[in-house]
Amino acid sequence: MGTLVSPQYLTTAFPKLLKRNGLRHIRYHDLRHSCVSLLLANGVPMKQMQEWLGHSDFSTTANVYAHLDYNSKLSSADAMVNGLKGALGVIS
């Protein structure tokens, strides 16, 4: 249409879109977190996500989004289980 989009357009139109499609209410900004979750789940390195998100500092990305790295938590838990199995084998 050739006109600028109002800054409030997305924040007012997004809830209407969700309601019209029978989806639960979330904030528009929450899509950013969902995007990062999908990127992490698909093995995209944190440094690339920093650039995608536009953070000037890597630590910002890491501090805000590192908790979403579910696969790392699973591999850490597996390492703990394997370590404990080894330790229990030595004791028995």
Structure characteristics:
mainly alpha; 5 helices; 92 residues
Describe it for me?
This protein is an all-alpha fold and 92 residues long. It is built from 5 helices and no strands. It has helices spanning 9-20, 30-41, 46-53, 58-65, 70-91. Helix 3 (46-53) crosses helix 4. 3% of the residues are buried.
Spell out the blueprint of helices and strands:
Layout: H1 9-20, H2 30-41, H3 46-53, H4 58-65, H5 70-91
Helix pairs in contact: 3-4
Helix/strand order, N-terminal first? HHHHH
Largest sheet: none
Q: How far is the N terminus from the C terminus?
A: 76 Å
Radius of gyration: 20 Å
**Count of discrete alpha- or pi-helical segments spanning 4 or more residues:** 5
Number of domains: 1
Structural class: mainly alpha
Number of DSSP-assigned strands: 0
Anisotropy-based shape: elongated
Mean pLDDT: 83
State the share of residues found in helices, binned by percent: 55-70%
Q: Low-confidence stretches at least 5 residues in length (pLDDT < 50)?
A: none
How would you name the oligomeric state of the polypeptide chains in this document?
A: single chain
Strand % is under 5%
Explain briefly what this protein structure is.
This protein is mostly helical and 92 residues long. It has 5 helices and no strands.
